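quick one if you have a minute, typing this from the bus. below you get a single protein, a line of residues and a line of whole numbers that encode the local backbone shape. could you go over both lines and see whether the tokens make sense for that sequence. anything you notice is useful, everything is just below.
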Amino acid sequence: MMKRKIAYVSCAMVLLLLFSFPQITALNAPPPDQPGPYHIGSYKAWYLVPPYGLYRATIRYPALHDGWLAPINTTGAPYPEIVVANGFAGSEWNIKWIPSHLTSYGYVTICFTPPHKISGDATQWASGFRGGFEALQSQNSSRFSPIFGAIDTETRGAIGLSMGGGGCVEATGASGADIDAAVGLAPASMPSVLAVARNITVPVQLQVGTNDGFVPPASVLELYTDFLSNNTVKEYLVITGGNHVGFVDEFFARFGQGLGIDNPPGITVEQQHNISRRYFTAWFQYHLRHLNEYYPYLFGDEAQHDLDEGLLSDLQYNIP
């Protein structure tokens, strides 16, 4: 695939970029593919979303040490919240690497499994995102909760894979959505997803692998180009050699690849995870926390380096 990088469409947009964003030459933050500074505490949660039923989830939060119900670390509180979802036939426990990594950067995350895992209804996943935020709100308000008063409920992110990625886009574009930034990993472009994608006004990043046998890059590019508005910040990136199952935890990815359920990958699972989390972590750090030191990883020298070195086969972005 030809390497390319989207150009701004007017001189005015170039001037806006030059004067709106600092010209950063040195990085003051650790590379976002490396673990963050926080330990991770966790516990189980359940929440009901009619008409679908009971969603099972794990809540993770910055803690004083790693472990089940570990004491919360309040030094960085209140923490932004992020809801995470796996895809078709998947469960929250085979995509743990995503919420764990984000929690290490000081986010309270809730990763859910929908009631009907084998379903083509992306709205079930979109409802899970809405219910996940409500569940975190409830936990934040309860004096008996391990995360009582620790969440910044006004700062919200969402990330999902495959059907969960489609649900993430749908939830972000739904009427009354209160999501500040979103990431879709190989998002499924179901009709209900496309129907609301044009409504999105907050930053959205889309990722996919060149070897994805379930959601081809062309499908994700169409969502990026034809359905996401040019009036919002958006980014599309293609991981060279990545495939679909390479976005789940390494054990399950290797198992799926051994069964031949996806196209063979051109890189290791660890390499795909490293590239993917570098971009989604920088996305949330930049758009939820407004940390300018993550700009180069998304739109600057670091991103261009990944493209030039072939880690990415395509990188496009829009900053209106």
